[in-house]
Amino acid sequence: MRIAYLINQYPKISHSFIRREILALEALGLPITRFSIRSCQDPLVDEADQEELAQTNIILDVGFLGLLISFIKLALSRPKRWLNAFKITFKIGLNSDRGLMLNFAYLAEACVLLDRFSHLEITHFHAHFGTNSTTVLLLHHILGGAAYSFTVHGPEEFDKVKAIALPEKIKRAAFVVAISSYGKSQLYRWCDFKDWDKIKIIHCGVDEAFFSLPYRPIPEKPCLVSVGRLSEQKGQYLLIEAVSKLVVQGYQFKLILIGDGELKQPIEEAIQRWNLQDVVEITGWATQTQVADYILQSQAMVLPSFAEGLPVVIMESLALGRPVISTYIAGIPELVIPGESGWLVPAGSVEALVSTMKTVLDTPISELENMGKIGGKMVKENHNIAQEAQKLKLLFQSIH
């Protein structure tokens, strides 16, 4: 059995959970060959990501000519399979939001995967995200390549089910991983009832780097932290508005935003407009060690997202003993239990966010620490990457 992973962009700063999963599988004696369709455009600030890059095969490194040669070569050597893949590509492309041409590029990438890397004798491919990387594996399989499986995170896959041909991908997959019960329910909605047994829950997780850190008490100095790409769906802009209202009401605290992204400039402008330069700090991208240190400097994590799967930063925060404020969406309520491991607010409600942040800032440290410990226990029981990787290894073994 030889397993390979295919991801659209790997390694990537926001995909540390994939790296942990791969390394945990290898620790269980299952070597993983890494493939990425393209190189990541974001800087790789973590040394662990830089090490992963050195082990990763980049498909688009073959260039346009390499794509074309493999495309033609497979058409000549496997005409029936190639024609079948061509028809499926055309069908998917007609419904796709990406258009026909880009879907034929996915077919060319599948041809490269089969033509250039068949000597590696991969017996099974696994993808993270049910979008274009899984499209490549679907077409690769139709061309005669190895069986495949994939992990669905959401929200993107659930926002455009037909546009990414999710039902077709589930039908042809050996199995499909959901990262939460909520995710599993959404996959049930979009596949044939006879395929329900294919849907398995494997949680994303954290590793011993978080569990083994010496416990650090929650500091007395009021500080909140938010980790994630600065984007619309993460809700940080509303978080800045909530901070401005709390400051007007006389609350003194610090908010640290860890990340970067397309909404950075509007967020910086809002900070200037509401005179929050001494209250809000934007760090940019940070290494895993730096993220852990920032979390430990805080009293709680705040993640006011509009759309998610189940954010790994919530697991990281709870593993480090810090409770979490987040929203009633997707898989988040499966981990953030109001009154136990944190607080949940309606997504998009600044008023609810302000009220809950006040509650956190007014809560005695001892209560915050107790909530963090409850959350940490939940993460260790349900989101330990070593345990989850063992479940995934058994799934790989069950189909070979």
TrEMBL record:
Pfam families tied to this protein: Glycos_transf_1
Gene3D superfamilies listed in its UniProt record: Glycogen Phosphorylase B
Taxonomy of the source species: Bacteria, Bacillati, Cyanobacteriota, Cyanophyceae, Oscillatoriophycideae
Coiled coil: none
One Gene Ontology MF term: glycosyltransferase activity
Official protein name in the record: Glycosyl transferase family 1 domain-containing protein
Annotated ranges, domain Glycosyl transferase family: 220-375
SUPFAM superfamilies linked to this entry: UDP-Glycosyltransferase/glycogen phosphorylase (SSF53756)
